[in-house]
Design goal:
two-stranded antiparallel sheet, Rossmann fold, disordered C terminus, 148 residues, 6 strands, four-stranded parallel β-sheet, globular, 4 helices, alpha/beta
């Protein structure tokens, strides 16, 4: 099998604008679904492929000081610019790097990073399958067969 290379690098000079356009279109849907899921104070959330960081910032506000957000990306420099004490940023490839089993509440989100590859899904499921330290359970939001 050929090695997968994500074609839309964040190093491209137009990346911030591209990510802002994506956020403008998809963030309202994602936030609405997290509202239905009941994301709240104290949750431990994972965002895979955090891109520009708008959802990571929203999650940080929602989970508050007692919660935590881990945002990952292949090129996390936009995420690293976010000033939130409850945010941890990882340089992470969901296709080859593992995730801690049961470490996150069921608000795991990946918008485009693993769509269509079919790889990485089992690891994502495992990361949010077991209740985290806050004891929450739920389901991953989906959009047309993709992770929200």
């Amino acid at each position: 099998m050929a090695e997968y290379k994500y074609p839309l690098t964040n190093e491209w000079k137009g990346a911030r604008e591209r990510l802002s356009e994506i956020e403008g279109v998809y963030d309202p849907w994602t936030i609405r679904n997290f509202g239905k899921l009941g994301v709240r104070e104290g949750w431990h959330c994972l965002e895979i492929g955090g891109g520009g960081g708008s959802i990571a910032e929203w999650l940080c506000r929602k989970v508050g000081r007692s919660g935590q957000v881990v945002a990952t990306d292949l090129q996390p420099h936009f995420l690293e610019a976010i000033n939130a004490s409850n945010l941890e940023v990882w340089r992470h490839d969901i296709l080859s790097d593992s995730l801690p089993e049961g470490a996150f509440d069921p608000c795991t989100r990946a918008r485009f990073g693993i769509t269509g590859s079919g790889q990485g899904r089992a690891d994502v499921d495992g990361a949010s399958r077991v209740p985290s330290s806050s004891g929450s359970r739920g389901h991953l939001p989906r959009s047309r067969g993709r992770l929200a």
